[in-house]
């Protein structure tokens, strides 16, 4: 078992490198200047050029790639284009608590629903209720998560108006 885990960890190194190469070059294929996006539409061409130089965007692509990989290995993921130039690490950290809370609640809910439906299906083996549960669970597994999530938001937020369509309120704030 230790050998298996070790092999998997070692296999992760080239996979992460290939993914890193892919991400880096896909980002560089996107039209537009990242410096112009970060500075906004009111920035002058001189400001954009100065910012591009300070970010190293004027250097050759291979040098940018080596610097990018070395920064990623050190845990420096750069500045966010979408959160007003905040460090990506800070943005991820700020949203991690909410993500972890939602993940844990989702897993707990899935375990509870899975046990309940499994017991009901086992008690009613090979009858109509068992078949209905099998169809619903098969559909639930087959539907892409992003589509199911969107449909659930539309149903509970727009159709029933019992949940907000966006935002997060911690459980410590209460349900009301």
Automatic annotation (TrEMBL):
Keywords: Cell membrane, Membrane, Transmembrane, Transmembrane helix, Transport. GO terms for cellular component: plasma membrane. InterPro entries: BPD_transp_1_N, MetI-like, MetI-like_sf. The chain crosses the membrane at residues 9-30, 100-123, 135-158. The keyword RNA-binding does not apply. One of its GO terms (molecular function) is dipeptide transmembrane transporter activity. This is ABC transmembrane type-1 domain-containing protein. It comes from marine sediment metagenome.
